[in-house]
Amino acid sequence: MKLNLQILAVMKYRLLCFVFCVLCSFLPINAEDWILAALKFDFSQNISSASEKETASLLPKLILEQVTEGVERVPLLQEIQYRNLEQLRTERLSLFLQLSKEVQTRDSLVLIEKNERRLKKKIAQANKKIKEIQDKIDENIQKAENYTKKDFKDSLASKNKPMPLKAERVALYQSDSNNLYEPSLEAIKSGVKGRKFEKEIIEAKINGLITGNIIIYSGYAAVTVSFYIYPGAKELGTVTEVGSIADCASLSQRLASSLVPLIINSHPVELRFDIQPEEALSSINIKVDGLVMQLQEDKINISSGLHTIQIASEGFSTQTFTYNFSNRDIFYIHVPMELKNTGSFYMNINPNYDGSLYANGAFISNSNFGRIEINDKPVIGQFLLPPNEEGEILGGFFYIPLEQQLDGYILAASPNVQNKTSIIEERRIWMYRGYTLFMLTLPFTFFAIGNFDSSYYGFFNGGVAAKEVYAWNTARYVTAGISIGAGGFFIFELIRYLIAANSVLPTSSKVITSSSKNEDTEKVDNEEK
């Protein structure tokens, strides 16, 4: 009975642990998230066009999309001050409510307690509690005054320089850039710096807010965007950009490129470029995380952190790389630009089928031979046969690497144009048949081996005849041979199935010749002319 109770106790403990783990899985993992939100932008004039009105919601959503969720930011000293003051304010309100409750309780003692001695004792106890709360309120007020003293403000005068504090993870409001924050009408009337607005923002657990104002004339808009931190309703920066209403994506990218460094509060980094050859500089185009940046004296300024740099120039291959630009103020980047391959090469499909030739989704020719333009990208090609009697269109893929794409070269490939789906299905069925046969033979083999072992030991103990031992020995070899054969058949069908499954992969091309054009190439060129 005692043992059963112990087992029951262990089971209850394990059940409680399981329930606790399940509940914890639904709790937020990181409580340090810094929440960013945006309001629907306002207009400085009356707007009647529905499409223009839509920009008030579209622009803030596009700006939020540019903020990489999950990046880390370091809070400003001023933010820490505002957060501490807000925490102290909330604590004071709570203490005041406790104080009012204790005072009312003390005053009611006169009506409740009739015994004078007990009344004095209870009033003394109530006054002690009231005094403790009053001391806490005074201590709270003193802390708040310390946070607003001139010497603390002077420590913030160094252009809001970040102090070495724990980084916070940037997250979007409701984890979606399409969800804009919608305050109440009373909060809107008080303004973004009003106490009612700030109270609602804090209750929504929002730390950063983007607001904007739009002026539209003749299809063009001047958009002024401001960034605020809460608590404190402190405006950290304002950006104004002008652009076409028809190209909101480009306009939002330019706005975001100026706002993101303010939002993530990152240290500025200078990138100095050495781009060779010099001819590439005439039409150079540099993008950082998809945003176009202008070179100024061969350098650009970005925020520290992980960035993807894309460098393009007309007539040269585009260079792209990703690097974590941190722990230094200046980075030197040497970019050797390579001239683009120009011209075309020819593709020949073997054997000589009738069909259609495609390259990277583009139609090339109605035969097994065609010319493909060089565009400095690997080519995934496809050759399709005409529909068969059942209306099926069979085809196969081929792959052409960059190093084979040279002007005038003739390449060849032999893509598998069989009905790969039916072949794979057939091979799969036979593989399962082999596996089933193999598994069915194993019980007989184990049974024969087990009986042989039993009869063998029984023979030496004098209980089993030698004839029976020889019989089970024969059965053991026969069943084992059948299992080995079935296993070999299964492995054989498994290999055939894997080969059939790999048949869907593109076949690699081969260089046939790099010499002068032959009759086929001249025929293709004449047809295109």
Using brief descriptors, characterize the structure shown:
single chain; 529 residues; alpha/beta; 7-stranded mixed β-sheet; 5-stranded mixed β-sheet; 11 helices; 23 strands; 25% strand; flat; disordered N terminus
Rg of Cα set: 39 Å
Q: Roughly how much helix do the residues carry, as a percent range?
A: 40-55%
Shape: flat
The structure class reads alpha/beta
Measured distance between first and last alpha carbons: 98 Å
Low-confidence stretches: 1-31, 150-164
Mean pLDDT figure: 81
Number of strands: 23
Supply the number of helical segments.
11
Strand content: 15-25%
Main beta-sheet strand count, sense and barrel state = 7 strands, mixed
How would you sum up this structure, described in words?
It is a single chain. With 529 residues, the chain is of the alpha/beta class. The protein is 44% helix and 25% strand. The strands form 5 sheets. Strands 1, 2, 3, 4, 5, 6 and 7 form a 7-stranded mixed β-sheet that branches. The chain has a 5-stranded mixed β-sheet with strand order 17-16-19-20-22, with no helix packed on it. Strands 10-9-12-13 form a 4-stranded antiparallel β-sheet. Helix 2 packs parallel to helix 8, helix 3 runs antiparallel to helix 4 and helix 9 runs antiparallel to helix 10. The longest helix is centred in the C-terminal third of the chain and has 41 residues. The radius of gyration is 39 Å and the shape is flat. The N terminus is likely disordered.
